[in-house]
From TrEMBL:
One of its GO terms (molecular function) is 2-oxo-4-hydroxy-4-carboxy-5-ureidoimidazoline decarboxylase activity. One of its GO terms (biological process) is purine nucleobase metabolic process. Keywords: Decarboxylase, Lyase, Purine metabolism. This is 2-oxo-4-hydroxy-4-carboxy-5-ureidoimidazoline decarboxylase. Residues 74-86 have a biased composition (Polar residues). The gene is uraD. Residues 74-93 are annotated as: Disordered. The lineage of its organism: Bacteria, Bacillati, Actinomycetota, Actinomycetes, Micrococcales. It comes from Arthrobacter cavernae. Transmembrane segments: none annotated. InterPro entries: OHCU_decarboxylase, OHCU_decarboxylase-2, OHCU_decarboxylase_sf. Residues 7-160 form the Oxo-4-hydroxy-4-carboxy-5-ureidoimidazoline decarboxylase domain. Its EC number is 4.1.1.97. Pathway: Purine metabolism; urate degradation; (S)-allantoin from urate: step 3/3.
């Protein structure tokens, strides 16, 4: 969607575009209500500011929609398509890495009570696995901050991919 269209369409339509980027109601509504934006920098800057901080309840709600790293969601939703694209660097055919990710995911979920979340876009399976193993040593408090940061990165990346770079003239 072009930014000019994003700025002018009905609020419900904008919310529908934003929700797959990050399913946090407050974030989606604040961005929708702050329109119009005069460029991608102002949109992304506002989205970043609005995403800090997330409450624990918001993080939990958003994580409910994220698949495990290494598992490809099969749903035909926009969010599932985004996840499949973002995890392109994780080759499910690499049995060694796939098994290590599955084991790491189980360990992470046992320790922290939620799925392991990382901005997978642009990262190889080996990099993701190394980060997973490193993060298993964190405290819950350290991990809370990291997860919120990863959610912000994912949301901004998705938003930038959904809205065109075309600038709106003043």
């Amino acid at each position: 969607m072009q930014l000019a269209v994003f700025n002018s369409v009905d609020r419900a339509d904008v919310i529908g575009v934003l929700r797959p980027c990050l399913d946090i109601q407050r974030w989606v509504e604040q961005i929708a209500d702050a329109r119009p934006f005069n460029g991608m920098d102002s949109l992304l800057g506002f989205a970043r500011e609005t995403a800090e901080p997330f409450t624990p309840a918001e993080v939990a709600a958003a994580l409910a929609h994220h698949p495990r790293i290494g598992e490809r969601p099969q749903a035909q939703t926009t969010e599932a398509a985004m996840s499949r694209s973002e995890q392109a660097g994780v080759d499910p055919g690499d049995d060694g890495v796939a098994a290590a990710l599955a084991e790491g995911n189980r360990s992470y979920e046992e320790k922290f009570g939620r799925v392991f979340l990382i901005r997978a876009a642009g990262r190889s399976a080996t990099e993701i696995l190394a980060s997973l193993q490193e993060r298993l040593a964190h405290t819950p408090e350290e991990e809370d901050n990291i997860v919120a940061g990863q959610l912000r990165e994912i949301a901004l990346l998705r938003l930038a991919n959904v809205i065109s770079e075309e600038e709106v003239s003043a």
